[in-house]
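Ticket #4471: structure export looks truncated?
Reporter: QA, pipeline team
Priority: medium

Steps to reproduce: submit the single chain below to the structure queue and open the exported record.
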Amino acid sequence: MSIKKGIVGRLTAVYLVVVLFALLIVGKIAYLQISEQDRWADYAKRLSQRDLYFPALRGDIYADNNEVLATSVPYYDVFFDPKAQGLPEDVFFEQIDSLSIGLSKMFGKKTAEEYSAFLQSAREKGSRYVPIKKRINYNKLQELKKLPIFNRGRFKGGLIVEQTNLRLKPFSQLASRTIGYISQNPNGNIVGLEGAFDNELKGRDGIKLMRKVAGNQWMEMNSENEVEREDGYNVVSTINIPLQDVAENTLYRQLAKYEAHHGTAILMEVKTGDIKAIANLKRGKDGKYHESYNYAVGESTEPGSTFKLATVIALLEDGFIDLYDTVDTGNGSRKFYDFTIRDVKMTGHGRISFQKVFEVSSNVGIATVVDKYYGRQADRFVERLHSLGLNQKQNISINGEGKPYIKYQGDRYWSEISLHQMALGYELKLTPLQILTLYNAVANDGVMVKPRFVQAITKHGKIIKKFNKEILMPSICSDETLKKVKIMLEGVVENGTGRRLQNPNFKIAGKTGTAKIFDPKKKRYVNRYKASFVGYFPADNPQYSCIVMISDPNSLGYYGGLVAGPVFEEIANKVYSTNYKLTPNLELVDKYGITSIPYSKNGNLSDLEIVLQKLNIPLQFYNNLKSDWVITEKKEKHIECQDRIIRRNIVPNILGMSVRDAMFILEDLGLNVKINGKGAVSRQSQIAGTKLIKGSKIILYLGKIEHKEEQIVENQSEENENETAE
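Actual output as written to the record:
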């Protein structure tokens, strides 16, 4: 009986455990179905459904003439799934050798045998995502899809293709910092136009719902939540490519010549505020110069003497002084409190007119006048600076604008000499672009316009949004003050520190600047300088304004007129020579559209044809041309050209050519080219017709070609000698 009871007890216990376990299972099922139904339904949905994203194509960025500055090009990353369900084993082993031969021919990194062994090993290991090649273009992809196995497609052939849109700049580093780039910054794209107009450029990705069906395949579903892809808008900038090229190359050469730390150059259209060129270069560890920071927009520093324009406007506007009032500048130095202010001219300028004070950039003269009239009312001077908008950001379209800093009485850093220092462009901060905007306002008859980097947003050639000229200030000062300031700015170039910029073709107005650099570690100004020149041209009918600033040049020179002036001059000359609006005396009077046939530099035939066609100047050929390079000769009613033969083993004759064409030819032949002077090539150190030694140095002496007809005869003779020598 006891045994029976024991068995029954054990069975009862087992039964109760089973029942309890069953109840727990039922309870859990009920809990899952009631409390967590949504969670698990969503999980099941994710296993069988997914969203497929179609990335939008980013819009392009254009120059002012619609040439592409930045564009997105689709590239493809290719992978292989050797264990794809639709790829039978017999097909794989029958065609793997043919596929390997094709891959070896296309990419060449491995032999056919190595490719075959690599892919078979991947299949044995069960790899499902074998890398084949990254970043191939569309044409290469189509060629790849024709190879054995891969021609079966994604599911039957295991070919996996992933599209990547790469951002390319056709003009390489040209204005690269202003154009910007695509970054992985958590805050998105923030640099240049790419960052400023990211929302417009990026477009909207497309989304389609996919469902898993039999055979582990995915099929597109119709869904109300489907989103159509919208490619990004295009941005049309104000940048002019030829002018940008001149600005960058000229700035580069000057920086290299003076071994400067960095520099910037900005060219602005007076009436509209359009930025036609903006160059920013900094010396890298390799000794070369690169665009790594937008100094024009972001570097807020002490401008030095270029700020004296604001000081002069304040003095004239308050009626304290006139152009011909005299100022005693003494012997070149004067003490204000415990601080001595000095002029560059050690012996001083004596008593001179206020206009002359500005023209020769006398620090003593400016400080003396400011001390006399604002010494006991410094706030009035500061208020004048504020009235010029110099204490406010311009809120330009590009991110990263440096904040201006104008001191005021009560500022924690204000001292008894702050007024005098500010009048000279110290103890305050402005960016190069903010300074240029002030000078541009003077050129624009007092109207201060906002710097503009973008003309329009477009889509498929249609304007979506247009950016009109924006006026920051309708008038910075009275007409009387404006007239006097223009006289003073012209006087700087005619009679003062900017005499180097005198131009026979058009007048330039502007101001030089040479500012000492403050070393925050040493907490004092050191013997390092920032050279600048800012102004506008033509002075009698201003069309463009420009600023050039070069920081920390070497001991060869550091004055603004010497270091920054030549960059300004070359940019101005390029603008003048390529803009017919600046040459009003050019009359189109005869059937050829010109008063007389001009001289032409020797050079590239296709370039010559484009230019002469634009100018409606007839071009005739001497015999049948065989070369891309030609010698030109001015005739009575046309330009005549003949072959200039370039041979790989003979030093060519490049007399009369532009420096760019000459360097292209010589560097292509392997010569090390050095430049001396300005203008066309007037002399070359290696004699034309002699044997060419690759890597040897050739010096090109540039200058004005006076007797073109004689040069043509000489060139023809040398070409004949070249042919005989070969």
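Status: closed, not a bug. The export was complete when the record was re-opened. Leaving a note from the reviewer for reference: Confidence is low (pLDDT under 50) at residues 586-594, 707-726.
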